[in-house]
Amino acid sequence: MEGGFTGGDEYQKHFLPRDYLATYYSVDGSHLPEIEMLKFYLECLHKTFGPGGLQGDTLIDIGSGPTIYQVLAACESFQDITLSDFTDRNREELEKWLKKEPGAYDWTPVVKFACELEGNSGRWQEKEEKLRAVVKRVLKCDVHLGNPLAPAVLDAYRAALCNLASLLKPGGHLVTVVTLRLSSYMVGKREFSCLALEKEEVEHAVLDAGFDIEQLLYSLRSYSVTSAANTGVCFIVACKKPGP
């Protein structure tokens, strides 16, 4: 993309949550690859946080964006969930849904699918209320704190993972989804840059940040709104190693 890597100021000024949600999370049938990608995420998260999976007291979702789908499974196994994002608009969008404010985004179809995976699609309203109850706060976050507008190189990604690792105790878990080989994506008519990573680079970065990888799922799925070829997605569950 022209103009270099998208910095924090550009996200703050120009990232529009409703354009993003309409492009990547609408289930009206107009974006079938996006729907399949979302289902893949939900299935991975259900396997990770469902019966016999990860559980605990505290879960911190770093870079939530304006979305809540990523904690639908976890709200059954964690009692205190923090959502976070860099931009004010994304945090405002989250608060709208949590507080049931007029004009909040309708996540009902996505919540229903998450409940189907759990074997009870009829409890979607109960699921929404459960999630609202366990999300205790929505905070501002910046994984590149101290260097927010630096060029996006692999070292920056590695540093971000180390910053995230510092939030976890030994034995704590990192659950992350990474879109591979994608250098930019569209939100409305505006293009935003991202770091094009290979699966092996992600694996090595996670290991070097002090984690053991417990689960890695790889898929060649891609979005319809990108022209990039050979993109894919990598879903990783990793456990922080004990200190020296």
TrEMBL record:
PANTHER family: INDOLETHYLAMINE N-METHYLTRANSFERASE (PTHR10867:SF33), NNMT/PNMT/TEMT FAMILY MEMBER (PTHR10867). Keywords: Methyltransferase, S-adenosyl-L-methionine, Transferase. CDD domains: AdoMet_MTases. It comes from Saguinus oedipus (Cotton-top tamarin). It holds the Pfam family NNMT_PNMT_TEMT. It comes from the Eukaryota. This is Indolethylamine N-methyltransferase. Coiled coil: none annotated. InterPro entries: NNMT/PNMT/TEMT_CS, NNMT_TEMT_trans, SAM-dependent_MTases_sf. Belongs to the class I-like SAM-binding methyltransferase superfamily. NNMT/PNMT/TEMT family.
